[in-house]
Amino acid sequence: MGGRVVGIDLAGSEKRDTGFCLLDVETLEAEVRILHSDGEILEASVSSRPLVVAVDAPLSIPRGRRSIDERSPVHFRECDLQLRRLGIRFFPITLGPMRMLTKRGMRIKELLENAGMDVIEVYPGGAQDVLGIPRKSRGLEELRRGLERLGIKGLRPGMTGDELDAVTAAYVGMLYVRGEYTALGDPDEGLIIMPPIPRGWRPGKQLSNYGR
Predict the structure, then answer these.
(1) How far are the Cα atoms of 68, 99, 113, 201 from residue 72, in angstroms, in the given order?
(2) Is the dihedral of CA 177, 113, 126, 138 positive or negative?
């Protein structure tokens, strides 16, 4: 299958760095850069003509909430609860700064879908757990080398966590278009797309069918 996918490590504010990765589905050659404004993200995505845009940000709110700012006892989507049952660490979307990220994620999703693109929610930290490679908190160079072991090309020393998480997002997007993925959650509420998770998997168990 030819074509390219986009991975976006979205920041909660346009003032902060958003990682953007364009990944070739066949060669796994990555082109990575930093963007800031919604307009830059939309323009870069549209011009790339991707098969899918994989966004690292919550793209929906829990069922039963009217808005992310509403005072409500409902804090988790089904996809979040499934992450928790798997033992994968994450920040609840109603927690402090995550509210700003969720608002922007939903806005970016609408912009991209209105431009005719397929948009999925991904979680690079969780994907890295499943793929058996380090999260950025364990070291950026360790994460970069882990991504290179998956076959991704074009990475360079000194890349930021935003850039490397965008690469991870794009890799999950590639798995999605290949049909090699696990979808967590309820489609009517919001899904998180992950690498394939076998029955009985727990953090620390590397998947042997990944890496080259």
Answers:
(1) 9, 13, 28, 32
(2) positive
CA–CA separation, 4 vs 24, rounded Å? 4
| pLDDT interval class at 74 (50, 70, 90) | confident
For tokens 């920041």, name the residue: 11
DSSP code for 51: S
Does the pLDDT value for residue 206 go beyond 60? no
CATH number 3.10.560.10 given to 4-194: no
Inter-residue contact 190 to 77 (CB < 8 Å): yes
pLDDT band at residue 212 under the 50/70/90 scheme: very low
Domain boundaries, the chain: 4-194
Among 158, 149, 208, 160, which residue's Cα sits nearest to residue 28? 149
Residue 129, φ and ψ in degrees, nearest 5: -60, -50
CB atoms within 10 A of CB 179: 8
Closest CA to 39 of 47, 31, 49: 47
Residues 6+ apart with CB under 8 A from 137: none
